[in-house]
Automatic annotation (TrEMBL):
Subcellular location: Endomembrane system
Entries under InterPro entries matching the protein: Ccc1_fam (IPR008217)
Membrane topology: Multi-pass membrane protein
Protein's organism: Acidianus hospitalis
GO BP terms, alphabetized: intracellular manganese ion homeostasis
Keywords: Membrane, Transmembrane, Transmembrane helix
High-level lineage: Archaea, Thermoproteota, Thermoprotei, Sulfolobales, Sulfolobaceae
Transmembrane spans: 34-55, 61-81, 101-122
GO cellular component: endomembrane system
Keyword flag Membrane: yes
Protein name: Rubrerythrin family protein
One Gene Ontology MF term: manganese ion transmembrane transporter activity
Signal peptide: none
């Protein structure tokens, strides 16, 4: 029976997808649609943390207040996007949110440390910084 079953590659692939990997063919959406959604998430996710700094251009807000507000917005948006992504990952909403926030915090800390290190090598002309 196994020899007969293994002759049809399409049947073997479908069987592996359904029973071993727990993937149904209906889960595969249009890649163009998924690419568009991903780019939309990246644009929104990139613009949200800039809101406090944009507001500080019009209203005098201390830099560190804008920075902390930006970090809070970033963590909230990562949590929301992480829980939304569980539709595709199969994780619980809480775990998806925590993983996204954790990954974002690692990226945030790495970027901040890189900025501190670069500040020792690159000088900013007076008037451009806070």
């Amino acid at each position: 029976i196994a020899d007969i079953f293994m002759k049809n590659k399409e049947t073997v692939l479908r069987e592996m997808m359904l029973n071993e990997l727990k993937i149904t063919p209906e889960e595969f959406e249009n890649p163009v649609k998924l690419g568009f959604l991903m780019s939309l998430y990246l644009i929104i996710g990139g613009l949200l943390p800039l809101i406090p700094f944009i507001i500080s251009l019009f209203i005098r807000i201390p830099f560190y207040t804008s920075l902390l507000s930006s970090m809070a917005i970033m963590m909230a948006s990562l949590g929301i996007f992480g829980s939304m992504a569980t539709k595709y990952t199969g994780l619980s909403k809480l775990r998806g949110a925590i993983e996204q926030i954790g990954t974002g915090l690692i990226a945030l800390i790495g970027s901040y440390v890189a900025g501190l290190l670069l500040a020792h090598f690159i000088t900013i002309p007076p008037g451009l910084g806070y």
